[in-house]
Specification:
It contains 7 helices and 5 strands; from the N terminus they run αβαβααβαβααβ. It is an alpha/beta fold. It has a 5-stranded parallel sheet, sandwiched between helices.
Length: 164
C-alpha cells in the first residue's frame, strides 16, 4: 500500500479512535485489509482486540472469538449472557480498547447487531469503545439489510482501501 494511502487510513482511524466511533474499511480483492488495518491501529497505540467473522458468522461464534481474545486463560461460560458480561468487563479493564472485526461481511445480522449494541452500551461509559469493521465491498451491501439500519446509520467513517 502506498504511503499516502496508509497515511489517509491512519488519519481516518485516528478520528475514529478519538471519537470512539464505528468505522467500516472496505478492501478490494488483492488488498490485505486485515494486515493494513492492524498496522494502522497499532500505530495509533490503541489496544486492538482483533477477531474474524469466519463462517458461520453466528453470534455464538463471535462471542467465543471475543472471549478467547480477551480472556484466553478463562474457560468460556456456557450461557451467552454470562459470556457477554465477561467480554464487557474485560473491555472495561483495557486501557484503550478497539474492536477490529476482519471479514465482517461474513457475520450474520445478530452478530453484527451485537457489535452495534456493544459499541452503543459503551457510549455511556467514561471509557468508550471504537469498533472497526473490515471487509470487501460486499460489507456495504450487508449493512444495507433493514435489520442493520441502526448500525449503518452510526458508521462515522467509510474508508476504501485501494490496490494501487
Amino acid at each position: 500500500m502506498p504511503d499516502k494511502a496508509f497515511a489517509a487510513l491512519r488519519e481516518n482511524l485516528g478520528h475514529v479512535l478519538q471519537a470512539c466511533a464505528l468505522m467500516c474499511v472496505l478492501a478490494p480483492d488483492g488488498v490485505q485489509g486485515d494486515a493494513v488495518v492492524r498496522a494502522a491501529v497499532q500505530h495509533a497505540q490503541a489496544d486492538p482486540i482483533v477477531v474474524s467473522g469466519i463462517a458461520p458468522g453466528t453470534l455464538p461464534a463471535l462471542l467465543a472469538s471475543l472471549h478467547d481474545r480477551l480472556l484466553p486463560s478463562v474457560p468460556r461460560p456456557r450461557q451467552a449472557a454470562q459470556m457477554q458480561d465477561a467480554i464487557e468487563e474485560a473491555l472495561v479493564r483495557r486501557s484503550w480498547p478497539a474492536v477490529v472485526v476482519h471479514d465482517a461481511h461474513l457475520l450474520r445480522n445478530d452478530a453484527l447487531y451485537y457489535l452495534y449494541r456493544l459499541w452503543d452500551s459503551f457510549q455511556e461509559h467514561e471509557q468508550r469503545l471504537p469498533v472497526i469493521l473490515v471487509g470487501p465491498e460486499q460489507l456495504h451491501a450487508v449493512l444495507d439489510r433493514p435489520a442493520l439500519a441502526s448500525l449503518k446509520s452510526c458508521v462515522y467513517i467509510w474508508h476504501r482501501l485501494t490496490d494501487s
